[in-house]
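pasting for ref
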Amino acid sequence: MRRTEGIAACLLGSTVIIGIVVLIWAWPGEFPGCATNAMKNAQKEAVDQLGDIVKWGLGISVSVCGLYGSLLLRLRSSPGFTLTGNLFAAAIVVCFAWSAYFALIWRQLLVEILSQDCITLIFDPWLKRPFSAFTDFFVAGLALMALMAALLMFSPRPPNLGAGGAA
């Protein structure tokens, strides 16, 4: 196994393990009680902005998972990746899948908060943790995409076999 393949395999394993640890950390558990309050305009605007961020991030995450997943399954016409590229693509899919999952959790919790008029929980760790996990995995997926591009761009190419089959 080459060095880049080892790095890519470690990154893939790390994204799965870290995702499980973050899932345990960010799991919301029971709905905490709170005093009901009316939402002010500034709070409503802040919630709308956060909701837009999550909505766009969710759409991008699902799209990247679909694109890289189809490349891994060879559903799209592509030259195919090396083993390193396949491992990086799998790690990218895992990062963006975690990101999409935490975005959905955050949106579901926000609906609970708004339906109960518990606006004091908007800035509570109960709701902040899934948002932080969504953001962190989204950024990690982008970083892995950049690292994959850099490593594959500058890695030596395998010898090209001509028509006669000799190098």
